[in-house]
Amino acid sequence: MTSVSTDTREQQPALPEPPAAHEWRERLLEALLRGMLVVGLFALVGGGIIPAIQLGRPDLLITYLVAYIALLVVTLVRKLGFNLRAGVLLFLFYTLGALDFSVAGLSGDGRVFLFAFVVVTTALLDLSHGIGALILSLLTMTAAAWLLITGRWEIPLEVQANSTSTVDWVSGSIVFLLMSAGVTISVAYLIRSQGHSVQVSQEAVEELQKQRESLEETVRERTRDLQQRSIQLQVAAEVARDATTAHELDELLNQAVDLIRDRFGFYHAGIFLVDESGEYAVLRAATGAAGRQMLERGHRLKVGEVGIVGYVTDQGTARIALDVGTDAVHFANPLLPETRSEMALPLRLGERVIGALDVQSMDASAFDEDDVAVLQTMADQLAVAIENVRLLHQMQQTVRELEVAYGHHTQEAWRTVARTSKQPLGYRYRRLDVEPVVDPPQEARQAWLQGQTVATTVQPETGTDGQGDTHAVAVPIKFRDQVIGVFDIRSTGDAISPEAMSLVEEVVNRLALALENARLLEETQRRAVRDRLTANITAQVRSSMDPETILQTAVRELGAALGTDRTFIKLSAETQPAEE
Predict the structure, then answer these.
(1) How big is the CA angle at 63 (ends 58 and 67), to the nearest 5 degrees?
(2) Res 273: pLDDT
(3) Under DSSP, is residue 345 helix (H, G, I), strand (E, B) or coil?
(4) What is the helix (H) or strand (E) element at residue 456, kind and residue range?
(5) Closest CA relative to residue 447, chosen from 487, 413, 482
């Protein structure tokens, strides 16, 4: 039985170390090297250089320096390999421990270095190497004890008391053996457990790999389905996004049907919108030559009666014709002879249906419920985009009407100001004073009529020295696109620069706003005075209940308020004829 077991064990090759365990040991080695590089610098100064100088042992100083340099090299040069770097680190632990016995005997840190030597050997290599390191450490301690007890090594007197005692060396070695053995066995057990866990994990991974391979075909099929749906959703999102960038309804609809046909690969795509009466679904955009012909003919389908478009716009739900030859609702369009299947989707705004999206394919049964779910989302977004464009147009039209109305009101108000104002309507400045002006110059009249800036060269004005050309610029004072005045400047000599003209135009724009504000203020004040007079007269009239007194009060107060010479009120004695 033993022979058979031995043969079997010999025939089985040793299992290689799992990659995970080797990686763990490499990370541990890297951490130890970096830590020792930092800690070793302090140990080199405090525990190496200073004691070596005090003892007068240059050999120790050289040894510590060489050891630290070796540690620095194996830490920084990672290309040296795991075995060489680990070997150098373990050799440094062992060497430092042995040298410390020659310096401090049993009272120093020699046993600590040897203990680290044993534990690190077990962690970086394996249990057998750790046991070998433990035996080597015990032999080193035995040799150090013999050398110190026999006096072959000389150490300071303060550490000779226990370093030359056999009992102390024996007890210290026993404690070292117990601690080293316990920690070494524990570390080896942990590493072995980790290796077992890694092996179990690898077996689990292999089992999962087998299960994955057995399910690969199913996953592949489902992945294809998901990819197809994902592509549809992505294309639907792109169609909705691109469609919403349009600001004109025809542009929006044409762009939408082209994108839907091209990206989904449909034979035909069209968008119908329900007319204002709600009676017909009118084709507003379609693809291809057939679509252009239908648009030219004003193609429309009666809601609730003709085709699946009529059905969808009436019911507000999607409809699929998997085989148009057998579908009773399908409308056979002679311009689309290759249609084999058709799907119509309602364009909905809440509960209201504003139209339908119609797509057709040359393949039978080309659509299913999943296609409806994807494309209906796109149709809803398209309906919102259509409504937004409509609302935008309505808002723009309202704004234009308000601007025109307000412009006419502004123009009429300034005409009233021009007719009723008792003050001059124009002023001129000639470097001395501001004076009224009645007749505007020619360039000012031209700017008023044209509504834009006029720059020209004019004859010198009367009273000037006549030297040089006179350059004139007339800038219309405009408010709400209505010309309410002209700002005219003239300069003799150099032409008026573009910078100066730009400054004048900016000032004129602000002047227009200031003039309009002043006019509105005067109008408001006039209305306030009129309302106050009306209230006063009304109060005076209502103060009496006698008709004659009321008439006299009304005549007197109105005459005083209006400042007229004569004011009278006449009550008519005539009566309206009675109706038969």
Answers:
(1) 150
(2) 92
(3) strand
(4) strand 454-458
(5) 487
Angle at 572 between CA 570 and CA 578, to 5 degrees: 160
User: Do 53 and 61 touch, CB atoms closer than 8 A?
Assistant: yes
Tokens 């149709």 correspond to 379
**C-alpha closest to that of 472 among 462, 487, 485, 484:** 487
At residue 477, the 3 state secondary structure works out as strand
Distance CA 45, CA 62 (A): 12
Mean pLDDT, all residues of the chain: 78
> What does 247-264 look like in DSSP terms, one character per residue?
-SHHHHHHHHHHHHHHHH
3-state secondary structure of 35: helix
Q: Please state, in angstroms and rounded to a whole number, the distance separating the CA atoms of residues 383 and 389.
A: 10
- Residue 487, classed as helix, strand or coil, is strand
Terminal CA-to-CA distance of the chain, rounded, Å?
142
The model's pLDDT over 435-486, given as tens digits with 9 standing for 90+, comes to: 787 777 888 788 778 778 888 887 665 545 555 677 788 888 887 777 878 8
428 CB contacts (<8 Å, ≥6 apart)?
434, 435, 436, 437
426 and 441 Cβ atoms separated by less than 8 Å: no
Separation CA 499–CA 511 (nearest Å): 18
Quick one: which of 131, 130, 93 has its CA closest to 114? 93
**Type of residue found at 46:** G
pLDDT in tens, 497-530: 788 788 888 888 888 788 878 878 877 887 888 7
Whole-prediction pTM: 0.43
| Assigned token pair, 49 | 């250089």
Contact 380, 389 (CB under 8 A): no
Structure tokens at 499: 């910078």
Q: Is 265 left (phi over 0), alpha (psi -120 to 50) or beta?
A: left
Q: 344 - beta bridge partners? A: 319, 358
Contacts of 147 (CB under 8 A, 6+ apart): 102, 153
Q: In 171-275, which ranges are E strands? A: 268-274
| 3-class DSSP string for 71-139 | HHHHHHCHHHCHHHHHHHHHHHHHHHHHHHHHHHHHHCCHHHHHHHHHHHHHHHCCHHHHHHHHHHHHH
pLDDT tens digit string along 397-413?
A: 887 777 777 777 777 77
Burial 515-545 (b: 16+ CB within 10 A, else e): bbeebeeeeeeeeeeeeeeeeebeeebeeee
Q: Which residues contact 281 (CB under 8 A, 6 or more apart)?
A: 272, 273, 274, 275, 300, 301, 302, 303, 309, 310, 313, 355, 356
